Amino acid sequence: MTRALGVDVGGTAARWVLLDGDREVARGAAPGATGHPSAAARARLAESLRLIRGALPAAPDAAGFGITGAGIPPDPALTPILAELLGLPETALWIANDIVLAWHGAFPQGGPGHLISSGTGSVGVAITAKGPVVVGGRGTLIDDAGSGAWLALRALDLVLRDVDEGRAETPLHHAFAARIGSLERGAVTAAIYGGERGEVARLAPAVAEAAAAGDARARDLLTRAGEELARLVRALDACAGPAPVALIGGALALHPAIGAAFDAALPGHTITRPGIDAAATAARRALTLTQTRTP
Protein backbone atom coordinates (compact mmCIF):
# COMPACT_ATOMS: atom_id res chain seq x y z
CA MET A 1 0.00 0.00 0.00
CA THR A 2 1.01 3.62 -0.48
CA ARG A 3 0.87 5.93 2.51
CA ALA A 4 -0.38 9.39 1.60
CA LEU A 5 -0.45 12.50 3.75
CA GLY A 6 -3.17 15.08 3.14
CA VAL A 7 -2.93 18.57 4.59
CA ASP A 8 -5.54 21.32 4.50
CA VAL A 9 -3.57 24.45 5.38
CA GLY A 10 -5.71 27.35 6.58
CA GLY A 11 -4.92 30.54 8.37
CA THR A 12 -6.11 29.25 11.75
CA ALA A 13 -5.12 25.57 11.53
CA ALA A 14 -3.39 23.04 9.29
CA ARG A 15 -5.46 19.84 9.49
CA TRP A 16 -3.85 16.62 8.33
CA VAL A 17 -4.65 12.97 7.79
CA LEU A 18 -2.44 10.01 6.91
CA LEU A 19 -3.94 7.27 4.75
CA ASP A 20 -2.55 3.82 4.01
CA GLY A 21 -4.43 3.05 0.85
CA ASP A 22 -8.07 3.58 1.82
CA ARG A 23 -7.40 3.13 5.55
CA GLU A 24 -7.02 6.13 7.83
CA VAL A 25 -3.92 5.74 9.99
CA ALA A 26 -3.79 9.02 11.90
CA ARG A 27 -5.26 12.49 11.97
CA GLY A 28 -4.37 15.76 13.69
CA ALA A 29 -3.84 19.49 13.42
CA ALA A 30 -1.02 21.97 13.64
CA PRO A 31 -0.91 25.78 13.78
CA GLY A 32 -2.23 27.52 10.70
CA ALA A 33 -0.19 29.02 7.90
CA THR A 34 -0.56 30.36 4.37
CA GLY A 35 1.14 30.02 1.03
CA HIS A 36 1.91 33.72 0.81
CA PRO A 37 5.43 34.44 -0.45
CA SER A 38 6.67 36.61 2.44
CA ALA A 39 9.52 35.34 4.59
CA ALA A 40 7.31 35.36 7.68
CA ALA A 41 4.59 33.34 5.95
CA ARG A 42 7.07 30.78 4.64
CA ALA A 43 8.54 30.44 8.14
CA ARG A 44 5.08 29.73 9.60
CA LEU A 45 4.39 27.17 6.89
CA ALA A 46 7.70 25.45 7.53
CA GLU A 47 7.09 25.30 11.28
CA SER A 48 3.60 23.88 10.77
CA LEU A 49 4.93 21.17 8.43
CA ARG A 50 7.74 20.27 10.84
CA LEU A 51 5.18 19.75 13.59
CA ILE A 52 3.03 17.60 11.32
CA ARG A 53 5.99 15.51 10.21
CA GLY A 54 6.96 14.98 13.85
CA ALA A 55 3.45 13.77 14.70
CA LEU A 56 3.24 11.20 11.90
CA PRO A 57 3.36 7.54 13.00
CA ALA A 58 4.96 6.60 9.67
CA ALA A 59 6.59 8.42 6.79
CA PRO A 60 4.35 9.11 3.79
CA ASP A 61 5.16 8.04 0.25
CA ALA A 62 3.23 10.95 -1.22
CA ALA A 63 1.50 14.10 0.02
CA GLY A 64 -1.31 16.35 -1.09
CA PHE A 65 -1.81 19.94 0.01
CA GLY A 66 -4.54 22.54 -0.18
CA ILE A 67 -3.00 25.81 0.97
CA THR A 68 -4.79 29.09 1.46
CA GLY A 69 -2.98 31.89 -0.32
CA ALA A 70 -1.01 29.50 -2.54
CA GLY A 71 -2.39 31.05 -5.70
CA ILE A 72 -4.25 29.58 -8.68
CA PRO A 73 -2.24 27.93 -10.12
CA PRO A 74 -0.15 27.43 -6.99
CA ASP A 75 3.16 29.21 -6.57
CA PRO A 76 5.79 26.82 -8.02
CA ALA A 77 8.24 27.92 -5.33
CA LEU A 78 6.18 25.94 -2.82
CA THR A 79 7.02 22.58 -4.40
CA PRO A 80 10.72 22.34 -3.44
CA ILE A 81 9.99 23.80 0.00
CA LEU A 82 7.33 21.18 0.81
CA ALA A 83 9.37 18.37 -0.73
CA GLU A 84 12.37 19.18 1.45
CA LEU A 85 10.29 19.55 4.61
CA LEU A 86 8.73 16.11 4.12
CA GLY A 87 11.73 14.38 2.60
CA LEU A 88 9.80 13.49 -0.55
CA PRO A 89 10.59 13.88 -4.23
CA GLU A 90 8.78 16.77 -5.87
CA THR A 91 6.98 14.31 -8.15
CA ALA A 92 5.27 12.79 -5.10
CA LEU A 93 3.46 16.03 -4.25
CA TRP A 94 0.03 17.32 -5.26
CA ILE A 95 -0.36 21.02 -4.39
CA ALA A 96 -3.34 23.30 -4.88
CA ASN A 97 -5.00 26.36 -3.47
CA ASP A 98 -7.41 25.47 -0.66
CA ILE A 99 -10.49 26.37 -2.71
CA VAL A 100 -9.36 24.09 -5.55
CA LEU A 101 -8.91 21.32 -2.99
CA ALA A 102 -12.42 22.00 -1.70
CA TRP A 103 -13.75 21.73 -5.27
CA HIS A 104 -12.28 18.24 -5.57
CA GLY A 105 -13.91 17.37 -2.25
CA ALA A 106 -17.29 18.62 -3.43
CA PHE A 107 -17.02 16.93 -6.84
CA PRO A 108 -14.91 13.80 -6.25
CA GLN A 109 -15.97 12.29 -9.57
CA GLY A 110 -14.96 15.44 -11.44
CA GLY A 111 -16.98 18.23 -13.04
CA PRO A 112 -18.77 20.00 -14.30
CA GLY A 113 -19.52 21.76 -11.05
CA HIS A 114 -19.52 25.18 -9.43
CA LEU A 115 -18.26 25.49 -5.86
CA ILE A 116 -19.23 28.52 -3.79
CA SER A 117 -17.49 28.99 -0.46
CA SER A 118 -18.49 31.54 2.17
CA GLY A 119 -16.49 31.74 5.37
CA THR A 120 -14.29 34.62 6.44
CA GLY A 121 -14.23 35.55 2.74
CA SER A 122 -16.14 34.27 -0.26
CA VAL A 123 -15.17 32.84 -3.64
CA GLY A 124 -16.54 30.75 -6.48
CA VAL A 125 -14.60 28.24 -8.56
CA ALA A 126 -15.23 25.87 -11.44
CA ILE A 127 -12.61 23.53 -12.84
CA THR A 128 -12.83 23.04 -16.58
CA ALA A 129 -10.74 21.30 -19.20
CA LYS A 130 -8.84 24.59 -19.59
CA GLY A 131 -8.18 24.91 -15.87
CA PRO A 132 -9.78 26.66 -12.88
CA VAL A 133 -12.20 29.55 -13.34
CA VAL A 134 -12.35 31.76 -10.24
CA VAL A 135 -14.82 34.54 -9.44
CA GLY A 136 -14.82 36.78 -6.38
CA GLY A 137 -12.40 36.12 -3.57
CA ARG A 138 -10.27 39.25 -3.96
CA GLY A 139 -10.29 40.07 -0.28
CA THR A 140 -12.52 41.89 2.17
CA LEU A 141 -11.43 45.41 1.22
CA ILE A 142 -12.84 45.21 -2.32
CA ASP A 143 -14.69 41.90 -2.66
CA ASP A 144 -15.82 38.79 -0.71
CA ALA A 145 -19.50 39.75 -0.80
CA GLY A 146 -21.75 37.40 1.16
CA SER A 147 -18.96 36.34 3.53
CA GLY A 148 -18.72 36.65 7.29
CA ALA A 149 -16.37 39.64 7.10
CA TRP A 150 -18.59 41.33 4.51
CA LEU A 151 -21.66 40.89 6.70
CA ALA A 152 -19.90 42.31 9.74
CA LEU A 153 -18.59 45.35 7.88
CA ARG A 154 -21.88 46.13 6.13
CA ALA A 155 -23.80 45.87 9.40
CA LEU A 156 -21.28 47.89 11.38
CA ASP A 157 -21.47 50.62 8.75
CA LEU A 158 -25.22 50.90 9.41
CA VAL A 159 -24.67 50.96 13.16
CA LEU A 160 -21.99 53.65 13.06
CA ARG A 161 -24.07 55.87 10.78
CA ASP A 162 -26.85 55.61 13.35
CA VAL A 163 -24.42 56.52 16.12
CA ASP A 164 -23.17 59.55 14.19
CA GLU A 165 -26.71 60.73 13.48
CA GLY A 166 -28.02 60.14 17.01
CA ARG A 167 -30.64 57.59 16.00
CA ALA A 168 -32.34 55.26 18.45
CA GLU A 169 -30.54 52.05 19.34
CA THR A 170 -31.68 48.79 17.76
CA PRO A 171 -30.89 45.11 18.33
CA LEU A 172 -28.07 45.52 15.78
CA HIS A 173 -26.47 48.20 17.98
CA HIS A 174 -26.79 46.02 21.06
CA ALA A 175 -25.37 42.93 19.38
CA PHE A 176 -22.24 44.72 18.13
CA ALA A 177 -21.73 46.57 21.39
CA ALA A 178 -21.83 43.26 23.25
CA ARG A 179 -19.25 41.66 20.95
CA ILE A 180 -16.90 44.63 20.68
CA GLY A 181 -17.31 45.88 24.24
CA SER A 182 -18.76 49.24 23.24
CA LEU A 183 -19.45 51.36 20.18
CA GLU A 184 -16.95 54.00 21.21
CA ARG A 185 -14.59 55.08 18.43
CA GLY A 186 -11.47 53.56 19.97
CA ALA A 187 -13.09 50.20 20.66
CA VAL A 188 -14.50 49.91 17.14
CA THR A 189 -11.21 50.95 15.55
CA ALA A 190 -9.29 48.37 17.56
CA ALA A 191 -11.79 45.63 16.69
CA ILE A 192 -11.64 46.30 12.94
CA TYR A 193 -8.05 47.35 12.40
CA GLY A 194 -6.28 45.64 15.26
CA GLY A 195 -6.21 42.11 13.85
CA GLU A 196 -6.57 39.93 10.78
CA ARG A 197 -9.71 39.67 8.64
CA GLY A 198 -10.71 36.61 10.63
CA GLU A 199 -11.21 38.87 13.65
CA VAL A 200 -13.62 40.97 11.63
CA ALA A 201 -15.53 37.90 10.47
CA ARG A 202 -15.93 36.80 14.08
CA LEU A 203 -18.24 39.79 14.56
CA ALA A 204 -20.69 38.41 11.96
CA PRO A 205 -22.76 36.44 14.51
CA ALA A 206 -23.91 39.84 15.79
CA VAL A 207 -25.93 40.20 12.59
CA ALA A 208 -27.64 36.85 13.10
CA GLU A 209 -28.33 37.67 16.75
CA ALA A 210 -29.92 40.98 15.79
CA ALA A 211 -32.04 39.31 13.12
CA ALA A 212 -33.26 36.78 15.69
CA ALA A 213 -34.23 39.72 17.91
CA GLY A 214 -36.36 41.17 15.13
CA ASP A 215 -33.99 43.67 13.54
CA ALA A 216 -35.26 44.12 9.97
CA ARG A 217 -32.02 45.58 8.65
CA ALA A 218 -30.02 42.65 9.98
CA ARG A 219 -32.43 40.24 8.30
CA ASP A 220 -32.11 42.17 5.04
CA LEU A 221 -28.32 41.92 5.19
CA LEU A 222 -28.50 38.15 5.67
CA THR A 223 -30.75 37.92 2.63
CA ARG A 224 -28.36 40.10 0.64
CA ALA A 225 -25.50 37.80 1.63
CA GLY A 226 -27.28 34.84 0.07
CA GLU A 227 -28.05 36.85 -3.05
CA GLU A 228 -24.41 37.94 -3.38
CA LEU A 229 -23.28 34.31 -3.19
CA ALA A 230 -25.82 33.44 -5.87
CA ARG A 231 -24.26 36.15 -8.05
CA LEU A 232 -21.03 34.14 -8.00
CA VAL A 233 -22.93 31.18 -9.46
CA ARG A 234 -24.30 33.32 -12.27
CA ALA A 235 -20.78 34.61 -12.95
CA LEU A 236 -19.49 31.03 -13.20
CA ASP A 237 -22.42 30.12 -15.44
CA ALA A 238 -21.37 32.93 -17.77
CA CYS A 239 -17.68 31.99 -17.76
CA ALA A 240 -17.80 28.20 -17.63
CA GLY A 241 -21.36 27.22 -18.51
CA PRO A 242 -24.22 26.08 -16.23
CA ALA A 243 -23.39 23.25 -13.83
CA PRO A 244 -24.48 21.70 -10.53
CA VAL A 245 -23.70 23.92 -7.55
CA ALA A 246 -22.11 23.03 -4.20
CA LEU A 247 -22.35 25.59 -1.39
CA ILE A 248 -19.99 25.35 1.58
CA GLY A 249 -18.54 27.50 4.33
CA GLY A 250 -18.94 28.49 7.94
CA ALA A 251 -20.87 31.68 7.19
CA LEU A 252 -23.85 29.58 6.11
CA ALA A 253 -24.35 28.46 9.69
CA LEU A 254 -24.95 32.03 10.86
CA HIS A 255 -28.61 32.08 9.85
CA PRO A 256 -30.91 30.05 7.54
CA ALA A 257 -31.84 33.23 5.67
CA ILE A 258 -28.51 33.11 3.83
CA GLY A 259 -29.10 29.68 2.34
CA ALA A 260 -32.77 30.42 1.67
CA ALA A 261 -31.92 33.56 -0.31
CA PHE A 262 -29.21 31.68 -2.21
CA ASP A 263 -31.65 28.95 -3.23
CA ALA A 264 -34.39 31.42 -4.16
CA ALA A 265 -32.03 33.38 -6.41
CA LEU A 266 -31.06 30.29 -8.43
CA PRO A 267 -34.20 28.62 -9.80
CA GLY A 268 -33.40 25.70 -12.05
CA HIS A 269 -30.01 25.00 -10.48
CA THR A 270 -29.15 21.75 -8.72
CA ILE A 271 -27.74 22.80 -5.35
CA THR A 272 -26.06 20.66 -2.70
CA ARG A 273 -24.38 21.50 0.61
CA PRO A 274 -21.74 18.78 0.92
CA GLY A 275 -19.68 18.05 3.97
CA ILE A 276 -16.03 18.05 2.87
CA ASP A 277 -13.09 16.36 4.56
CA ALA A 278 -10.45 18.50 2.88
CA ALA A 279 -7.42 16.79 4.40
CA ALA A 280 -8.64 13.35 3.32
CA THR A 281 -9.39 14.72 -0.14
CA ALA A 282 -5.81 16.00 -0.38
CA ALA A 283 -4.47 12.58 0.62
CA ARG A 284 -6.65 10.86 -1.98
CA ARG A 285 -5.43 13.30 -4.64
CA ALA A 286 -1.87 12.33 -3.71
CA LEU A 287 -2.77 8.64 -3.94
CA THR A 288 -4.26 9.19 -7.37
CA LEU A 289 -1.08 10.98 -8.40
CA THR A 290 1.10 8.02 -7.41
CA GLN A 291 -1.24 5.50 -9.00
CA THR A 292 -1.24 7.29 -12.34
CA ARG A 293 2.55 7.28 -12.30
CA THR A 294 2.85 3.59 -11.45
CA PRO A 295 3.89 1.54 -14.51
Automatic annotation (TrEMBL):
Enumerate the Pfam families for this protein: BcrAD_BadFG
- Where the record annotates domain ATPase BadF/BadG/BcrA/BcrD type, the positions are 5-252
Matching InterPro entries, A to Z? ATPase_BadF, ATPase_NBD, Euk-type_GlcNAc_Kinase
PANTHER family the UniProt entry points to:
N-ACETYL-D-GLUCOSAMINE KINASE
Quote the protein name from its UniProt record.
BadF-type ATPase
